[in-house]
Amino acid sequence: MRSAKIVGLGKYLPPRKLTNSDLEKMVETSDDWITTRTGIKKRHIVEKGMSASTLAKYAARQALKRAGIKSSDLDLIIVATITPDTQFPSTACYLQNHLHARHAACFDVSAACAGFVYALTCAWQFISTGFYKNALIVGSEVLSSITDWQDRSTCVLFGDGAGAAVLTSTSRGGILSAYLGSDGSKGDFLILPGGGSRFPSSHETIDQGLHHIKMKGNELFRIAVRIMVQAAKKALKKAKVPVRDVKMLIPHQANIRIINAVTKRLKLTPEQVYVNIARYGNMSSASSAIALCEAWEEEKISRGDVIVLDAFGGGLVWGSTVIRWI
Ligand code: ACO
């Protein structure tokens, strides 16, 4: 049975940084509150005019270069995003055009913070069946474009960025298993209500702030820990890999307290869990993509290691992928 392996990783963070002390000047908050409640110290924010496909382009170019694969050899491009350039065309189509990847089929995945895990699973399936050989997946978000900068309960949490992975067919190792789940009954826990067909953009939707993220943070927090533990265990069971064999867990970076609780419940040591939330905040689908890229750049992942991606987000959606690094 063939599988897919990651042969190149890339990332892009827009240069502008927004620190907790910058936020102290914008809303009633403090560095101490943000740090202790979330673990976030700063986040990167785009300059006006930079869209998800722009961030994706820089991350993708780096991943392709590292993979030694030409964009013209890509069969598939999947972009995971909840902040697409436009409702349509898809951000993947814009990215194809930026990269001149003229042979690639393109589509977007909307799975919020679990988007990169969903995209990875889709690409893996296309490749393992032999339908495609080379795929590019990108988690790219401009969350600053849907953030209410006057709402202290959400604006301190999010950042912008993109992470990319190039996958190709392999006869050994690579992705061993994946587990995906959803619960549409809790969609209102994390939602961008306006601008879709339910509430098309109008003066009224703007006046009501429906073009901004609405979040029930407390409810999500409780579910996130339980679901992320469950997802990782289910994916590992499918791969027939015991938790003790995990070299590195790459969790979604929503809150350091969620990550610590997941670490504890999975009986992992802090050294086995990659954390970069302090530098970037929550970048939705880009978070696990960038965390994976940085874990690799920092040589925390070597050949033969078992890596587990584990993510949870609005939908609700969640997923975990087990990879033997080769
Ligand atoms: N600064 C200062 N005080 C604040 C701030 C702030 N930025 N934000 C809220 N507070 C206050 C609240 O008003 C409240 O005050 P009160 O007690 O007087 O009413 C108090 O702090 C506590 O607020 P809580 O919301 O209970 O704080 P909590 O400890 O739950 O932390 C947080 C909030 C960080 C949002 C947390 O609940 C969380 O991380 N939730 C999970 C988020 C998540 O997993 N999202 C899913 C993935 S994201 C995606 O899919 C895009």
Task: Describe the SSE topology.
Layout: E1 3-12, E2 17-19, H1 20-24, H2 31-38, E3 42-44, H3 52-67, E4 76-80, H4 91-99, E5 105-109, H5 115-128, E6 134-142, H6 152-155, E7 160-170, E8 174-182, E9 190-191, H7 203-207, E10 214-215, H8 217-239, E11 246-251, H9 256-265, H10 277-280, H11 285-297, E12 306-313, E13 317-324
Parallel strand pairs: 4-5, 4-6, 11-12
Antiparallel strand pairs: 1-7, 2-3, 6-7, 8-13, 9-10, 12-13
Helix pairs in contact: 3-4, 8-9
Residues 29, 33-34, 37-38, 112-113, 152-153, 156, 190, 217-218, 220-221, 224, 254-255, 258, 282, 284, 313-314 line the site of acetyl coenzyme *A (ACO).
Question: What this model shows, in words?
Answer:
- With 326 residues, the protein is of the alpha/beta class.
- The protein contains 11 helices and 13 strands.
- It folds into 2 domains: 3-172, Thiolase/Chalcone synthase (Peroxisomal Thiolase, Chain A, domain 1, 3-Layer(aba) Sandwich), CATH 3.40.47.10; 176-324, Peroxisomal Thiolase, Chain A, domain 1 (3-Layer(aba) Sandwich), CATH 3.40.47.10.
- The strands form 4 sheets. Strands 1-7-6-4-5 form a 5-stranded mixed sheet, sandwiched between helices. A 4-stranded mixed sheet has the order 8-13-12-11, sandwiched between helices. A two-stranded antiparallel sheet has the order 2-3.
- The chain starts with a strand and ends with a strand.
- The mean pLDDT is 97.
- The chain binds acetyl coenzyme *A.
